[in-house]
Amino acid sequence: MARQLEEQIVARFPVGKRLRVLDVGMGRGAQALRLARAGHQVTGVEQDAASIAAAREAFAGEPEGIRERMRIIEGHAGDTGVHFLPGSFDVVLCHGVLMDDVEEPDALLAGVARMLAPGGMLSLLVRNGDAAAMRAGLSGDWAGALAAFCPPTASYGLKRLTSTLAGIGAPLHTWYGVRVFTDTAADDAVLPDDLDAVLAVEDRAGRTDPYRGVAALLHLCGVRG
């Protein structure tokens, strides 16, 4: 996903431009830190205290120039309008926020999109509602796979997301699949010796039909007109 995001940023913005980035649902700050290292001004919004503490610890080990480009605001993803003026950011990340149970997810997305300046880009990462049965099926959990064929109404597939992004003023520009072949790997799995090959295959599959359509996650990039 980081490769995909970098690809879109490089293609959309002038080389060397210091972007204003908002990371909504920042988590432990991996993407925020990577973008700050690239020279961008990054603001993270996170409500989980443990994640904030982990992010601050990671940031503390960086050079002063990078730390100065980072800011953390403790708050809910749906409260962006409380903290920022509309159009304040060139890039807004909303990664994983809609993977949890969220009340009125479309309204949350609309609020996030309002933070984009004209020409700004929204990077959205969600579970792929079109392939909800894949993980359970590949793991041999047949009952779970059958149940997943009837996902909750709140689930997002590509068609719904395309409509939603158009409706909130950030129409879909491009999309990728994430974790096409590796979604069943255990969280504590040892990294393989051929990790570069694994990443190359995932990167290729994530941008190639029909593979990207059955990925565990969808990474969509919408652009504010």
Low-confidence stretches: none
Termini separation = 24 Å
Query: Which class do the helix and strand fractions yield?
Result: alpha/beta
Query: What is the gyration radius calculated from CA atoms?
Result: 18 Å
Number of distinct helices: 10
Overall 3D form: globular
Instruction: Provide the β-strand percentage band.
Output: 15-25%
Widest sheet: strand ordering: 3-2-1-4-5-7-6
Largest sheet: 7 strands, mixed
Averaged pLDDT, please? 93
Percent of residues in helices: 25-40%
Can you tell me about this structure?
This protein has ten helices and seven strands. It is an alpha/beta fold and 225 residues long. Strands 3-2-1-4-5-7-6 form a seven-stranded mixed beta sheet, with helices on both faces. Helix 6 (105-113) links the parallel strand 4 (89-95) and strand 5. The protein is globular. The mean pLDDT is 93.
